[in-house]
Structures are given as structure tokens and as C-alpha cells.
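[step 3/7] fold_predict: job queued, chain A
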Amino acid sequence: MLKYLLTSLKGMAMGAADVIPGVSGGTIAFMTGIYQELIFSLKSIDLKSLKLLFTGDIKGFWKAINGNFLVAVFSGVLVSVFTLARLMHYLLVTHPIPLWSFFFGLIIASALFILRDIERWKISYVITLLVGIAIAVWISLISPSETTDAWWFVFISGMIAICAMILPGISGSFILLLMGKYAFMMTAIKELDIAIIAIFATGAIVGLLSFSHLLSWLLKRYYKQTISLLAGFMAGSLIKVWPWKIASLNYEGIDYPALPSHFELHTGIDAQLPYATIFLVIGFGLVFAIEFIAKAMQK
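[step 4/7] structure written:
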């Protein structure tokens, strides 16, 4: 019981990370020593294990997929998601600049954290890093701040965002930001919009079960290229979470980053530079504080 309680606490840390665009739930799992077991357990949900379920061997199915572990992890994740969604919704509305600054610091530190695994750089690592930066910059600049609320887009958002949860480096909330669905989903969870949550969750289940096999193969065959691509993706996405943005005059719904002084000039809103700096530093330091705590938990 103590083992599964500790696993649930680690799941809660993962859920908290995935509500905040910056730290990945996969990174938390990696730091706390449950990442490999999580990927292995998810991979175990395949045709072979499902056959056990459909033939009535529920005990065999549960053992095959490491059910106790998965329940412990994802119960912790769900507790954090439903608890923190209200807070994130409130801060997005009332204190956007300090919040985005906090996210900005988190993402910088997270990108540096996962790059520490690359001790000797090769040309392939540099190329994948630059490709990741280029793709993220392109997506960040062309993607509108708001996208369609149609059920199919919510389903796809769930598929893609949940994949990020098991990636060491990119958070699900970060993906939702790029897809223009972060505030939308925080509101849906806050207001317990069952229809939206169900569609998103269905997409998440499909994405999780299908992507875990691809991710396992990539990390086994091309580990350093994969993490350098992820780090580049995170670095390029800093444009998306830049605290000061002004609306484009040419493209409706698209915002572009601006200097704090230009932001004040165009919007008439205080740039809150001192607060932004403080929360950026807090976000940056939090990643390494989490690493310190995770190492203590492992010991």
C-alpha cells in the first residue's frame, strides 16, 4: 500500500506538471523513477492482453497490464488535473503576464534539463535540435490564439496532448497552447463540462495506447536525436508563451510577441516587468527544485 501511495503521489506531480505548460509529466515520471515502468505498462495494453479480458480472465488481464500501478499513477494525475484547473483558469483571466512569465521560465529550464543527457554533440543532434526549433517557431507564429471548438478537433487535441504527457520534455498543456485549446479545456474542467471532457478523454485514450509503442521504439533506437528534437521544439515554442503579445493587423486571431514597451504603447496595459521577471526566475528555478526533490524521493 505504501508503494502504491507513493506512486499516486508521483502521479499527482505528473498531473500538476501537465496542467502547467512547461514541465512535462513525462519529465516528472523520469525524475521520480517510474518512467520505464509506465511505458512498459502502457505497451502491455495490446491485443494479447485484451484477449485475456474478452475471454473472462480479468485477473490475468490486470496482471498483464500492471493494473495496480496504472491505477495508482492515473488516479494521482486526475486529482491534480481537476484540482489545478480552477487555479489556472483564474490566473489566466486575472494575472496573465506573471503567469505567462512563469511558464516561460519553466520551458527554458525544461529544455536545458533534457539536453543534459547529451554529453557529446554530433551533427545529427544539432540538425534535429534546429529542426525542432524551426517547426515550433513556424507553428507558434501561424497558429491562431483560438481554434474551432468542434468535437473532432477536441478529440484530436486529446490524442496529441496526451502523447506529450509521456514524452520527457513536452507537457500536454504546452501542446494545447499550440493548438489554441488550453484555456478552453481549463474552462471545461473547471465547469465540469462532461461532454467536452468525455470527447477529450476518448481522444487521449486512443492517443496514449497507440503512441506508447512508437515512443518506446524511438527512445530505444534514436534516444538522443529524439530528446534534441523535443528540446528544439520547446525552445522554438517560447514565442507562443511570451508574456507580451499584440494582435496582428493582417491576420485575425493571431498574436505576435512584442517588447514590453511596445506592448504598453499598443494596448495601454502595464507590462508588469518587475513581476514578470520574478515569476520567470521562479519558474526557471522550480524545474531544478523538482529534480532535487525527485532525487531525494528515489533515495
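[step 5/7] annotate
The first strand starts at residue 245 and ends at 247.
DSSP finds 15 helices and two strands in the chain.
exit 0
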